[in-house]
Write a structure and sequence with these properties.
- There is one protein chain.
- The protein is an alpha/beta fold.
- It has one domain: Rossmann fold.
- The protein contains six helices and ten strands, in the order H-E-E-H-H-E-H-E-E-E-H-E-E-E-H-E.
- A six-stranded mixed beta sheet has the order 5-4-3-6-7-8.
Length: about 200
């Protein structure tokens, strides 16, 4: 295992832990795909959680701009599911703090818990286990910037962009592995549906 795990090593870990599955899957959006990746399943195992968190922290520390602000850097994630890697990265980096945003439902706006309030000028790194559409990252970024915080980058264990991924402009994206899957916009356009492959909703 390399100090910063290679793309192949990360994928092998995901397969070994059941986080990466092949088949026929339907997302809540109606999009179909031939792979389903749930990185959080890999974080059930301390050894793999440590490897991924420390590896991502080393990727971040290699960036001179991130390295210069580590002591004052806040790690913020858009879901509680991202907390294991957020805490792991914060610990390995020795960054300033970790907090997260919440949503009551998909239709309600993202918010922070009572007494959690970003400071004006606070430098924030957005962290999660995976980046697909970027929808939650975009909402979290807007929330933070509306309160005067400065988002300096995004960091994820796995970057698996789908066809509808949001644009983050010049904001740097750090990741350990980049993966691609075959996506179909709906059942009508899905080759797997036409082949009669059983579908599993996720």
């Amino acid at each position: 295992m390399h100090l910063i795990p290679t793309n192949e090593e990360v994928i092998a870990m995901l397969r070994q832990t059941g986080a990466l599955r092949e088949g026929h899957f339907e997302y809540p959006t109606g999009m179909h795909t031939d792979e389903y990746l749930q990185v959080a399943l890999a974080f059930r195992y301390y050894e793999f959680a440590k490897i991924l968190s420390v590896g991502l922290s080393r990727r971040l520390r290699a960036d001179p701009e991130i390295r210069a602000m580590i002591k004052n850097l806040s790690i913020v994630c858009p879901t509680t599911g991202g907390l294991p890697i957020a805490y792991g990265v914060c610990e390995a980096l020795r960054a300033h703090q970790v907090y997260w945003a919440e949503k009551e439902t998909d239709e309600t706006p993202m918010h922070f818990r009572q007494f959690v309030e970003p400071a004006k000028g606070e430098r924030v790194l957005l962290v999660d286990d995976i980046l697909r559409s970027g929808r939650r990252f975009t909402e979290l970024r807007n929330l933070l910037e509306s309160k005067g915080a400065e988002v300096v980058g995004l960091a994820v264990a796995v970057y698996q962009p789908n066809p509808t991924i949001a644009s983050f402009g010049n904001l740097p994206i750090f990741y350990l592995a980049k993966m691609s899957a075959v996506y179909y916009s709906n059942a009508d356009s899905c080759d797997l549906c036409r082949q009669g492959v059983p579908v599993e909703k996720v």
